[in-house]
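Subject: Sanity check before I submit

Could someone independently write out the structure tokens for this chain? I want to compare against mine line by line before I put it in a report. The sequence has 188 residues.
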Amino acid sequence: MQALRILVMTGLLALLLVSCSVMSKDIRSQAEPRLPFKAIAQEPNRYAGQTVILGGYILDNRLGADETTLTVIQSPLTRRDEPKSKDRSEGRFIVSHAGFLDPEVYAKDRKITVAGIIAPCEVADAPDCPAPYPRIVSTQIYLWPRYSDDDGYPYYGYPYYGYRYYGHPFYGFGRFGFHPYRYRHRHW
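---
Independent answer below. Compare away.
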């Protein structure tokens, strides 16, 4: 019985760890997990041809004849591959995507995670590939959704949000009464 319990818990843990990333399992297995962005930015030609997963915030979206070029401010990724704060950025990178990415959807300040191959940067490509901006040829892109109160995004204030929470020390003060954690949510 104990062995079965351990086996089930191990299986659930493995399933949880695999399902954390927004990138496919194939891309994840090909990507270089320990390649720091600073190293890529300083020497993009040294790492050309390697698959990486990078993320950040879109700065610019330029449409070409048959491709879209995104300029992205890099940000470290969480376990789920979601970009963290812009304040932790180590530079910028350029994403080349074969096809159309709508500038209204892939707009400035949207969070994005990109898996792709590092392209070599030549001196002749200086206007398109400046030295500090490595170019990534995308194989998979994930655009993180925007959340707002209108979308039904579940905002849970500290420690609980809602009109009544059973078991909360201030239960019973309700919608029109005093509730110390709802100052910004009052609708008088």
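---
OP: Matches mine. For the report I'm noting this point. Confidence is low (pLDDT under 50) at residues 149-167.
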